[in-house]
Specification:
mainly alpha
Length: 330
Amino acid sequence: MKTGTKIILTLLFLSPALGELLSGSSPPLEFFTPFGLITLISFYGGSTVLIREARARWNLQWSIVLLAIAYGILEEGVMMQSFFNINHVDLGALSGYGMFGGIQWPWTINLIVYHATISTLIPIAMVELLWPQYTNTPLLNKKSLLVIIGAVGIDTTVFMYYVWSLQKNYLTPYVPSPVLLLGSCAVIGVLIWCAYRFRASRLRVTTGKLLSPFSFAVVGFLLQVIILVTGLLASGHVPASTTLIVQCVGLGLAGVFLGRQFFHQHRTVRHVVGFIVGSILFWIVLTPLNEFVNKMLGMLPMGVCALVLLLYWRMVVLRKEQGKTVVDVI
């Protein structure tokens, strides 16, 4: 099998495995079904492959983050509409919490951060660290590109219809707002345009101390903790304004750290690996809770497998890197 094919296949499975399976959004009994695998791989995996392809073709650095944010809006704002739908099954205490202008802002911020990291940027970085020589190499021909775009489009349309069809089961049905849906599409378009517009832009920090890879791991872990904290604050009936302040402060601090550290001239692969391990480890730690408290059968074994594979991935990447190479990922 050609290396390019391996990269594409790995991304197609890795993105939904991290974004849906490990988080418990689609537990093993749902994930490992024909319908589950096909839809999640085609949408999650397909979208991530497209972002990776855009990165290679446009030679993106920091502006790839804009594409990752656009993906989060496409999934949760357009396809699932969980940003606006108070009946969305995963909301829990966040249903209607911090609603302003028809948008559930604490949930929206959470999901954008989650999808931008766990669902897209981290899978792309993991694959590019395994095969660094292909980092800026386009892997899709025109036909493959159109097939994946078509698959993502079909999934989006089907799930939009599915979300609307469920509303008859609720006392207060969710009525899609054309303004919010069209606005989401417009924002996605602007983000894609900006990513392309700033394709030649580069960040490079030459001053200040570079912190340790362990610090990167801690920040990766804490960035995911913000998602859990938001739900806990909502469950504790903390005012939504307070929760939004906590979110913004936490994300602001993380953004400053990453902006100053990720693009530091002396940053090595070990630092990126640390961030990735810390981010994924948070969700691995939660698998026993999902298994025994949330009654998601198979989550604990899944967490153990994920930990073993994560440590194996780390070992392979660090053997290649040997503390010397700076790889421009994420």
